[in-house]
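Appendix C reproduces, verbatim, an entry submitted by the partner laboratory led by Prof. M.T., so that reviewers can inspect both the input and the predicted structure.
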Amino acid sequence: MAPENKNRATAAAILPLVGGARNIDSIAHCMTRLRLGLKDRTLVQDDALKALPAVMGVVEDDTYQIVLGPGTVARVAPEFEALVAEQPPQVASAPEELAARGAELKAARKAANATPFKLFLRKVANIFVPLIPALIGCGIIAGLNGLLVNLGWLPGVTPALAAIASGFMALIAVFVGYNTAKEFGGTPVLGGAVASIIVFAGVAKITVFGQTLAPGQGGVLGALGAALLAVYVERWCRRWVPEALDVLVTPTLTVLVSGLVTLYGLMFVAGEVSTGIGHGANWLLDNTGAFAGLVLGGLFLPLVMLGLHQALIPIHTTLIEQQGYTVLLPILAMAGAGQVGCAMAVYLRAKHNEPLRTTIKSALPAGFLGVGEPLIYGVSLPLGRPFVTACVGGAAGGAFVGLFSMLGDKVGSTAIGPSGWALFPLLQGSHGLGTTIAIYAGGLLVGYAVGFLATYYFGFTRATLTDLNTAPAPADAEAGEPTPVPAEPAQA
């Protein structure tokens, strides 16, 4: 089957299982997930969706998220959108009741699972997630260019590679401003226009608080703040400016007021905050690297579960702007290593649970590449204790990488998004590439090993192991009476 036919077939298989085109409110995708806004959650057939070969798992948040994996989701999403466009929504027999029921379910889900802080973090994540593909591409090119420069190869090509790798980062503030205004309900191009002031070379002629501004000062944090201010100024203008003058006055006042505040306040404040983040991250790893790595690696999976990991995205981006790489991501990636080790232990302990073992076999390749949702939601979290022991593995791997940071060997990533083995092409550090790769690989091995051992010996009670390894006996299969299979001893 041709790749495009395969992707369309996947989209066609998913569509009826989420209630058909009439049940779709919105369609988007990130690095690994197809994100759907649904009118009626009760129409979704979760089990049938999870059984599809291309589906690694499902996650319910503010949107219904189907985990397809990196690369695949970017190809399936357009096919899914095309199918929805080809099948206009059908008229329901009782449209008012259906709409009311869908609205009620949506409101109840939001009230139960969302807080203002989490909603704000989701908006922040939505600003940066669309930028990740460009960050990855430019990061890999930057790493390749650095390798060629160090080896002294292709001196006529390396300046071109440097320009290609650096162009996006030089203007990332504009993209952040555009996305911020779009996400918070303003005019996107006005957000981009205000944020572009930050990277304009002419700001070097402006003095604020006795200091001359530098192009790029404040970085993505300044751009985010400037565009957010522009949204509120624009809303104020829309409320008070007469309609006849709106097209002239509103954009002018929005850019002027937000621009002046950005130049004479936000750039300076955001610059100080950005510098503090860089110094703080370096101090933390230089002085408490092993402990900091243990805490960060151990708590990252719970942060993901609570949605709080989204707050780290601007921090990663700020570090990449300042230093060329983020030292936090390789440590946080160790959480995925603990998850993989945990899953391998569950596979061995659940010897007679074929459905669970099949899930693990299908999800492990993605887990090695840093896509952890299938293992989290399909294996460790439902089992309880293994989720905790997976965190222990992540803590051990994080402590390993953090220890080397204390010794002066920092390991960083030139982009955000990938983890696991997929992070290798993006690695960069304070010493040679070989040393950086060796430290990161060592952290992964420690995470795998500790996650495996902690889960194998401490991840199950006797009752849990008995339940996991219960299989129907041949004589009782029709009656549906299970027969326990002797399990290995486990600590209660």
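DSSP finds 19 helices and ten strands in the chain. Additional entries are available on request from the coordinating office.
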